[in-house]
Specification:
The chain is mostly helical and 199 residues long. Helices cover 73% and strands 0% of the residues. α3 runs antiparallel to α4. The chain is globular and about 55 Å long. It starts with 10 loop residues before the first helix and ends with a helix.
């Protein structure tokens, strides 16, 4: 175990808590998410029979670390997850987890001002996202496109970034309602791109 729960929980209760933790992270409720994560029995991702739950738990912890400003911890967790996936005989069935870990690792590098290292990781996350998500409607894919565009802007490649912004914007336009965790990064990126292109 990565953490030791204070009380025993059934598999059903733990599954519900994973869903709740995911929702809290999506809503940006990091304080509540951290409190719940501290109580959740986290499964070691390298335990063969429980690899799916273990990778899910590691993904949640990495997202929490990134959301609370602990970029290095987020990157370490993501890299550990990727190492487990790459060594697994079931890698072909773990593509969703791999995409999420690559996205987290790339974002962690980007917020650490390492755009050169972030770009290939974010590109891989975007390419995987195009394979596993609906390319016309997936907010998760748009999230990866936005992150990659941010890195490209830092690398002085605004025209390449503009292509990704257009794709993300088209995805967002297919949803009447979309949470701020998706909308605000795109709005900020559009403003940043416009300023760069006006120079």
């Amino acid at each position: 175990m990565l953490t030791s729960p204070g009380i025993q929980r059934s598999k059903y209760e733990t599954a519900i808590e994973r869903v709740r933790l995911n929702l809290l992270l999506a809503q940006g409720s990091t304080t509540e998410a951290a409190e719940l994560a501290a109580k959740l029995p986290i499964v070691d991702a390298d335990l063969g029979p429980q690899i799916a739950n273990g990778l899910t738990d590691r993904t949640l912890l990495a997202r929490l670390a990134l959301a609370t400003g602990h970029a290095q911890q987020a990157r370490d967790l993501a890299q550990q997850g990727l190492s487990i996936i790459e060594a697994s005989h079931s890698r072909d069935y773990l593509v969703v987890a791999e995409q999420r870990f690559r996205l987290i690792a790339g974002k962690a590098l980007w917020v650490s001002k390492q755009a050169t290292d972030a770009e290939p990781m974010l590109r891989q996350a975007t390419e995987l996202g195009e394979k596993i998500y609906d390319p016309a409607r997936s907010p998760e894919l748009a999230d990866a496109q936005i992150a990659l565009a941010e890195a490209l802007l830092d690398l002085k490649r605004p025209l390449d970034a503009r292509v990704l912004v257009a794709k993300a914007k088209a995805i967002h336009a297919t949803h009447k309602e979309l949470g701020e965790q998706y909308r605000l990064p795109l709005l900020a990126l559009e403003a940043r791109l416009a300023a760069r292109l006006s120079l």
